Amino acid sequence: MALLLRGNELIATTALSAKVLTRLVRMAVRRPLIINGMELRSHDLERLAEESRQTAQPIWLGTPDAAHLAPSSVSRDTDADESSFTIPTFLEDEPAEGIAAPRSVQTHRQMVRRHAEQKLSDVSRLSDFEVTQRLRGFLKVEEERLRIAHRMAAAGQRTAAARSFVLDTFVTYLFRAAQQTGPAAGGGGNSAAPATPAARARDCAVIALGGYGRSDLAPFSDLDLLFLHTGERRSGASTRELIERVLHLLWDSGLSVGQKVHTLDECLAAWRADPHFQTAMVNARLVTGDEELFARLTTALEQRRRKNPEALIASARHERAERAKKFGAAIYLQEPNVKEGAGGMRDLHTALWAAYARFGCRTLDELRAAEHISEDERIRATQSYDFLSRVRHEAHWLAGRKTDRLALDLQPQIAERFGYRTSPHLQASEQFMRDYYRRARDLHQFSEVLLARASERGERVLRWFNRARREQLAEAFSIKNHELYFEGAPSLFTDNPLLLFEAVTLAQTANATFSHELRDTIRQRLTAVDRDFRAAPAPARLFREILGRRGRVGGALRLMNDVGLLGRYLPEFGRISLLIQHDLYHHYTIDEHTLRAVDVLDELAVGGGVVNSNDRTHAQL
């Protein structure tokens, strides 16, 4: 399926599935869409999507003749040239059974390759000015294609991966052009026997690092590259010239590049000495150049990982600690950092670095296949990360620059772009931020659990809980490593909801937290906390006891809030949970402000009336 876009007019070249129709609903909220000549409002598209779901068949809009329209029939931006703004297939479904996709429909990668061949294949023969214009024009068209796909509700990770493919193609063409350009390509210079382009390609590998290596780039992300070379005399000078030429082309194109130039030995030395280089190399990926040289590097690093996984785990923990110092440990900030803050995308990166060190798995799918995480964990983490990825994309585009902080002025704009609408009770931005905090909380909690599992020396995840070493506290509960576990059947919480408060009491008195499994169990059983339970005297008695344990009240209430128990038991608190106030005086969500005030009271109770915290917010409270 392909959609050809021009303003609010679209041409559908195949029938549209319910999934695609649902994605179009948000686009039609502000103004109707004209699809194959038909004017459709959001409620029309909702009706068509429901019809498609009911019949399990895609829907044709307009006349079937639209399926034969070629991309060239759509008017284009002057910079687009032969590349139409076709919505690429990372947004689309496969053609329905019995419906053949028209020949004009291309996958995203096919379109990028075709565009690159048209615009980049001859840059080595152009003047410097013409090269700059050609490179920037190519990137402008491809960025616009990605922006359109994002507006059509493409998944954040797919958009990021598509951008990485665009840059892979771009760098590959520039590398080839640099081989044919300058004195190193043809016999000039001081070398008696200058290396041929093929020889230089064998002597140098261009490697993507960090987010680029993960294929996880936002619109204004830095392009982190490692130029790995042999350092041999016969090609040393020409290889350096090749690298310099590639870098100049990248800079001329307007990209922000972070580059490292190393031999194999220098890479291994940097890996031992620099924790940041260790973590950056986890997702190292060959873009172009010497495959054998890259394979030697990855083999050497894999041997070191297997020999000493603790080194990489220590680097991941070091990065996490440094990040907490710089950005804070609070998830519920008024203006959170979507990448580096607590609950941000970096939380998952850090946990995956540690998981790779311990298990050799780089992705959530690999961890699931090896049974190191459950399917529910994989789905929840993937959905949370994808939401944050889309938010980051939108923030970059709205700001027109690299920005990972969700500033107050950006939040209403992102909410509108994502289809949130103001209700009688909540502003659109408040609804959006509430969803953001939920996703950030889920991602943070999963990342903490995965990091803890990876830190367990030599134990399989599904067997990591050693019964012989547990401290038994109650018939259904036990503690290990300051985490409370539940050993009974989950249905016990439904049969006896009082166990929910008993779990909080045990964690509070033992200064423990809930295990990830217990958190999930409690969340799934919160329906047991109904009106009758709230009116019963036994839960009220236990809750008053929790509030009466001076010095430990804040932690217990925070546990209850994290799993949704506090808001379920006190509906008034639930209504303010994860809500932000858009003013200059409140730096956290309303519930977080309340819990921080209780933390201060705990400190007063323990410290004899003195607040020992260095937190300026505590002092203000």
Total strand segments: 12
Level-1 CATH class name of the domain at 155-307: Alpha Beta
Question: How are the strands of the biggest sheet laid out side by side?
Answer: 1-2-3-4
CATH topology of the domain at 155-307: Beta Polymerase, domain 2
Number of helices: 28
User: What would you say the CATH architecture of the domain at 155-307 is?
Assistant: 2-Layer Sandwich
Fraction of residues in helices? 40-55%
Provide a descriptive summary of the structure in words.
The protein has 621 residues and is of the alpha/beta class. Among the domains are: 155-307, Beta Polymerase, domain 2; 311-463, Four Helix Bundle (Hemerythrin (Met), subunit A); 497-509 and 517-620, no CATH class. Helices cover 55% and strands 8% of the residues. The chain is built from 28 helices and twelve strands. The protein has helices spanning 18-27, 42-55, 108-120, 128-151, 156-179, 183-186, 197-203, 210-213, 233-252, 264-273, 275-281, 291-307, 309-327, 345-359, 364-369, 375-399, 410-417, 428-455, 491-495, 498-509, 516-524, 531-535, 537-548, 553-562, 565-569, 571-576, 590-606, 616-620, and strands at 3-6, 9-12, 33-35, 38-40, 204-208, 223-229, 257-263, 285-289, 471-472, 477-480, 483-486, 513-514. It has a four-stranded mixed sheet. A four-stranded mixed sheet has the order 7-6-5-8. Helix 10 packs across helix 11. The longest helix is centred in the C-terminal third of the chain and has 28 residues, at 428-455. Residues 63-105, 183-193 and 458-474 have low confidence and may be disordered.
